[in-house]
Automatic annotation (TrEMBL):
InterPro entries per the UniProt record, alphabetical: AlkB-like (IPR027450), AlkB-like_sf (IPR037151), ALKBH3 (IPR032854), Oxoglu/Fe-dep_dioxygenase_dom (IPR005123)
Organism this protein belongs to: Bizionia arctica
Entry-linked PANTHER family: ALPHA-KETOGLUTARATE-DEPENDENT DIOXYGENASE ALKB HOMOLOG 3
Name this protein carries in UniProt: Alkylated DNA repair protein
Entry superkingdom: Bacteria
UniProt GO MF annotations: catalytic activity, acting on DNA; demethylase activity; dioxygenase activity; hydrolase activity; metal ion binding; oxidoreductase activity, acting on paired donors, with incorporation or reduction of molecular oxygen
Required cofactor names: Fe(2+)
Keywords (A to Z) from UniProt: Dioxygenase, DNA damage, DNA repair, Iron, Magnesium, Metal-binding, Oxidoreductase
Amino acid sequence: MMDLFSTEKTIFNLPQAELIYFPQFYTQMEASSFFHTLMEQTLWQQDQITLFGKTHKQPRLTALYAETNRPYSYSGITMTPHPFNDILLKIKQDVEAISKHTFNSVLLNLYRDGNDSNGWHADNEKELGSNPVIASVSFGATRNFKFKHRTLKQENHKLELKHGSLLLMKGEMQKYWLHQIPKTLKPTEKRINLTFRYIA
């Protein structure tokens, strides 16, 4: 990983949110090593999700790892965590060092191609407390991260999440903003995203 005190970053000036992006949190070599190890070692699953009265397979694979065995629920899905392994602990420690924040769980998402996506949502489950800090690490294909304010219609933005990048979402972002990873028609390779959080 690059020197924590000289890592290039972009701080977004947004109303009611703190968003900090580190495009090269890991070197390309480190990121590729993490990507391949996570692909092989992660216990991926595909849950059923119900939207507007219809049940279908979630459009991505997921896995939950944590320091405790406390279940985590979102969008009507309840996941039971696996214990942290060495690679996830290493990434967690790196993220904690630069964010100055402690995390005890991570939700992994595997986007297999452009058809896999994540709809508009906020990470605002009650287990996360008020104004949670969410640290999002990306490996693999670059995908668009869209985010919009709930009431300020002009605040509608897009950011490319690159291989080896880190995105920190802080402040009141989960209260006032929604975000998503939309589908894409262009040919896209696999992407793994890790969202670290603290579950109380």
